[in-house]
Amino acid sequence: MKLLPKIICRTVGTAGMGLALFDAMKVGGQTSRNTSQATQGKYLEKLYFNNRTIENTSFVSNGMRHGTFNVLSSSPIASLWGRIKGWFQGTLCSLGNNLPIVACSAFALLSKGTMAKVGAIGTGLVLCYDILRNGLGFGKHNPMD
């Protein structure tokens, strides 16, 4: 393969993969924040109801229950676990949604000769389809019609 087609294929593949990974990181970050808040909320709700239910009238037991509630409610473990879980969910979901562009970009980057050209053309077609479909709205059913 000559030098110019090789440079074009690698550039198109890098651009497509960069767009897919950028989108995956942004979606992963947003899902991470949302999942972290939801996990922290569920954890605090469970702690609160465990703290508010009185099984006996012992002052020592009530003091221990309130003390453990105060320690556990300020723990960052639930929030951290929610962030990690949400980041993986969002990133993998976004990469799955962008699978055609990831596959075509990988062909353009990793293949040689004709397969690299096919991958670059496929990446270009997928990007054009995405611009026409999501950017300009061609082929979408308008709910107002």
Keywords:
145 residues, mainly alpha, 5 helices, elongated
Would you give an account of this structure?
The two termini are 50 Å apart. The protein is mainly α. The chain contains five helices and no strands. The chain has one domain (3-135). The mean pLDDT is 87.
Itemize the secondary structure elements and their pairings.
Elements lengths: L2 H50 L6 H15 L3 H21 L1 H12 L3 H22 L10
Apparent shape: elongated
Helix content: over 70%
Radius of gyration: 25 Å
**Low-pLDDT stretches:** none
Mean pLDDT: 87
Oligomeric state, counting identical vs distinct chains: single chain
Total strands: the figure is 0
Distance between termini? 50 Å
Instruction: Provide a count of the helices.
Output: 5
Beta content comes to under 5%
Structural class of the helices, strands and pairings? mainly alpha
* H/E element sequence: HHHHH
| Number of individual domains | 1
Largest sheet: none
Question: Quick gist of this model?
Answer:
The protein has 145 residues and is an all-alpha fold.
